[in-house]
Amino acid sequence: MKLSNKVLAMEHSPIRKFNAIAQKANEAGKKVYYLNIGQPDVETPACFMEAIRAFDEKVIAYAESGGVAALQDAISGYFRQYGMEYERENIIVTNGGSEALSMTFISLLNPGDEVLIPEPFYTNYHTFVTMADGVIVPITTTPEEGYHYADAEKIEAAITPKTRAICCISPGNPTGNVLTLEEIRLIGEIAKKHDLWIIADEVYREFAYDGRPATSFGMAEELADRVIIIDSVSKRFSACGARIGCIVSKNEELLDNLMKIAQGRLCSPTVEQIGAEALYKLSKSYYDEIRAEYEARRDVVYKELMKIPGVVCQKPGGAFYLTAKLPVDNVEEFLMFLLTEFDDQGETVMFAPAEGFYATPGLGKEEMRIAYVLNRKDMARGVELIRLGLEAYNRR
Amino acid sequence: MKLSNKVLAMEHSPIRKFNAIAQKANEAGKKVYYLNIGQPDVETPACFMEAIRAFDEKVIAYAESGGVAALQDAISGYFRQYGMEYERENIIVTNGGSEALSMTFISLLNPGDEVLIPEPFYTNYHTFVTMADGVIVPITTTPEEGYHYADAEKIEAAITPKTRAICCISPGNPTGNVLTLEEIRLIGEIAKKHDLWIIADEVYREFAYDGRPATSFGMAEELADRVIIIDSVSKRFSACGARIGCIVSKNEELLDNLMKIAQGRLCSPTVEQIGAEALYKLSKSYYDEIRAEYEARRDVVYKELMKIPGVVCQKPGGAFYLTAKLPVDNVEEFLMFLLTEFDDQGETVMFAPAEGFYATPGLGKEEMRIAYVLNRKDMARGVELIRLGLEAYNRR
């Protein structure tokens, strides 16, 4: 019995690749600062579990395939705060942003069709595009340029007759890159010229710092027929385990076809939708509070990082990630050293090697990704441990 | 911008096709007995919401990609009751049986690869196989033979060099057909001979009547390397909205590759897994109670159905569905008549036309599916309304 080429071409999560080794370090009595995964320590707003605890239907029945109407209305209200008008019929509730992405790629891609994605990119895009028998064509960016990709020449060089869509994540994982509305419009013009769909993964929308406004491809009216927004409660509300996300679009033909997949898998979980409704109804002041916390964490991380001689990193504008080039040939070897040979007062640190975030072979070997999802003190200590580890690594 | 051929080839749920028309009948003051959908009226065991209400983590964090360990252990314990040994590493928790199926097909099928499925079949198989760019090859069964398909000649006639798997749902939706252990072994022999995977959709496992034991492809040790069991809490525990299911297998290579997809979509919902753990721990007496209730409903439905002259139906042995041939040329036209022109004392009835359950064009036009998910009185009245409707239909 054979397995499919697509599943064989997928990869195990590179973010979790070193988990077993870190676990061993832990068991050996070392304290490990985990800067590798995007699981925030911020408390989920209490309204989530309160709404769920109050749910008292006797039968946990199927929800509507497109989502519980009250949740769709709450999502609609959330977008209205930004001047974007999406009605119930524009919103399909999904099992997290993950399912929103996989449903979208399945709806757009024939075998061999191409999607443009700036690299380094969220590694699971590879899984989702491969599930659809599609191919990622990377738009390569560099740490020296702050991972900037909103550049017509750079983007158009990657377009072929097989290109069907461009997928932009802003604020970005793993780079923290944030698109301005002008950049959104520039990318939109390219998409129009080459007749491409735009997949706008905006699950970190409010995590934009230094006074940057929350932007969205949904704000560019001229792109309404081609924009597919991916949203999720995971990061914004620190509710990763809720697995509630959505696809938002104004393209009726797309929505009608997506509904076939949505009906096929029946519905998203009923109880979690009840909780998510409460989250989407939170006022804007909630985002201000969370944003301030993450911005302060970013500042701490960046400041500590700048103490490392030879590191290359432009201050990231959003999300809660930072990718940086370290002064080593091979970041994976350095990480292995940190976990197996190094400690400072019994402590060490874990980050995500960036090679797995690149599609182009050989790139990213000198880069790492940090998720600043711990409190400021721990973040500062984590980055300090990287600095101390580098010193020890170079002394070997 | 184009959509993918696969999404265009999918179909909207035929079970929901007449919903809008039934809705109108309802709004016009008619009472409609809904025998068309598999949403049971049975109360979800209280332990589900109790476990969820007691969940008091401050952060709703990602669960493990393969499932919460305590839930995997509960599933393991559930299978052990039937003498089947599956450990944590044999179990991947999914977003319902639906995701278990779509992940499985994506793992097995290259574009154009074939899966054998007895028809009539659960319509969403079409969506899941098409998502994987695969093709369903039906093994045609008939109401006259009680939709029997465990027949070497019949199955082997459908095998081609592109066949990768045979997918059996037992107890079956929509036919109520239940495989004996001997039939399971016969199908297993064919799968071994032709090197096929066996996808065993057993979400109705306990719904087997007339003293039939609960059977499973997992009971045939000689098939351990090729059997992929699909399980779910939806029907067994009347928890359709929980969207918790699992893939159970002893094939390590398959599991290792499935985990790539599982990691890609991060995890199944954390809170619902807590509730599902409590469900899987229920004792066998729970199934006895539920089985007795459904068996009594089946008896009522079958008895009422046999009062209709010209109906063709073998008494189904399990699940909570029954498919029957009605003495009309076109069941969809008859259903339209029931919803728009007919009533008896202000009441009418809705069922699922069976044409959508067949892959072979032209088949199923004279058949309907009934889900016996209402109480006995309502089920009896629903089938009586079909009989009265037929009389009125023939008098026109």
Features of the shown structure:
transaminase activity (chains A, B); PyrdxlP-dep_Trfase_major (chains A, B); Aspartate Aminotransferase, domain 1; 396 residues; homodimer; pyridoxal phosphate (chains A, B); globular; alpha/beta; 2 domains; PyrdxlP-dep_Trfase (chains A, B); Aspartate Aminotransferase, domain 2
What strand order characterises the main sheet of chain A? 2-8-7-6-5-3-4
Q: Based on the structure, what is the oligomeric state of the protein chains? A: homodimer
Q: Note the overall shape of chain A.
A: globular
CATH class of the largest domain in chain A: Alpha Beta
Looking at this structure, what is the CATH superfamily of the largest domain in chain A?
Type I PLP-dependent aspartate aminotransferase-like (Major domain)
Helix- and strand-based class of chain A?
A: alpha/beta
Question: CATH architecture of the largest domain in chain A, please?
Answer: 3-Layer(aba) Sandwich
Mean pLDDT of chain A: 96
Radius of gyration of chain A: 21 Å
Keywords (chains A, B): Aminotransferase, Pyridoxal phosphate, Transferase
GO molecular function, one term (chains A, B): transaminase activity
InterPro entries (chains A, B): Aminotransferase_I/II_large (IPR004839), AspAT/PAT-like (IPR050596), NHTrfase_class1_PyrdxlP-BS (IPR004838), PyrdxlP-dep_Trfase (IPR015424), PyrdxlP-dep_Trfase_major (IPR015421), PyrdxlP-dep_Trfase_small (IPR015422)
Cofactor (chains A, B): pyridoxal 5'-phosphate
